Amino acid sequence: MARPLQSLRLRRTIVPRLRADADLIAIGDPPLSDDAETRRIYGRRSPAELTWPFLRVSIPDEVPLRKGTQIRVTVHTFSKAQFDDEVEALNAAVQAGLEDAVLELSPATKAFVSWINSQVIPDAAEANAWHGLNSFNATIGEGTCDRHNGGTTFGDFIAELTATQTVQKWNFTPSQLTARLGVDLIGNNVGGEEHTFTPVAQFGGGFVLILNPLAGTPVPAPECLALDDDDLVPAGGKYLIEAEELAEVVDASGIARVQCCIHPWMRSTVRMQR
Predict the structure, then answer these.
(1) How, if at all, do strands 41-42 and 54-57 pair?
(2) 5-140 fold
(3) CATH 3.40.50.11890 is right for the domain spanning 166-273
(4) What is the pTM of this model?
(5) Exposed end of the chain (fewer CB within 10 Å): N or C?
(6) pLDDT tens, position by position, 69-104
(7) Residue 235, CB half-sphere, CA atoms under 13 Å: how many?
(8) Alpha-carbon gap, residue 266 to 173, rounded angstroms
(9) Confidence of residue 169 (pLDDT cuts 50, 70, 90)
(10) Alpha carbon distance 256, 266 (integer Å)
C-alpha cells in the first residue's frame, strides 16, 4: 500500500535532522558518527548486518483532522550495552532534537512536533539488547497553531499548555457574562488565529486531537465534532451565536457554555435570563 505523501515527507525530514544532531551522533560505543553516511539512523531501509547501537524512524501513521493531519511518529533506539544507560541517552537526545520542532516539509507545509513519551524495554527480537521507543505527534496544515501569535512561539505555546492546561494569551473575554433568552450573541475574533464560538452542553475537548490531552480535556465535546465549515471564524472575523443554539445547551441552573473547538481551554459561561 502506498504511504500518504505527508508521512513520507515527514520521515524524509526527520531522518536527516537526526543525522545532523551532533549531540545524538556522539553517543554510542562505537558512536553513531562512525558511519559517515547514515550515522546508523535509518528510515525505510537498513543494512542486513547492523552495527549497534542504531536508530530507526518508523513509517508514520496519519490521522485526519477536520482541517489538517496528525501523524504519529516513533523513533526506535537500539543498544546492546550491558545496562540501559546508552539507550536512555539516545532517547534523551532524540527527545531534545525533535520536541517542539517546526519542520519544513515543503515550501508551503510545516509540521509542528510535540513529544508524547519515551520508554525502554528489553528487545523482543535480540537477546541482551535494549529497545527504546520515542513517540511524537506531528500536526500539519490548517487546524494547527501558527508558530507566532502575538510573540508566542509554538514551543512556548506547547510548554505553557502542558504546564498549566491553558495558554494565557489565548482566551475568551469575558469568561462569564449574562445574556437574555431569545437574544443572539456576537463572537468577535480579535486574535491572530482561527477560532470557533461553539455552544456546548458541557465543556470538553476540541477537534484538534493533539491539544486535547494537554488541555486536560481528552474527550471532545460532541458539538465540536459536528461543526459546519462556516463555524470556523478567521482572525478578525465575527460569528453569530444564535439564541436557539444557546437555548439548546442551557442547563437547569440557567447556564450555557461556549468554547473554542480548536483551543478548548478558551471558554465562557453564559447566565441566561428571561
Answers:
(1) parallel
(2) STM4215-like (3.30.2000)
(3) no
(4) 0.57
(5) N
(6) 778 899 999 999 999 999 999 999 999 999 888 898
(7) 8
(8) 9
(9) confident
(10) 15
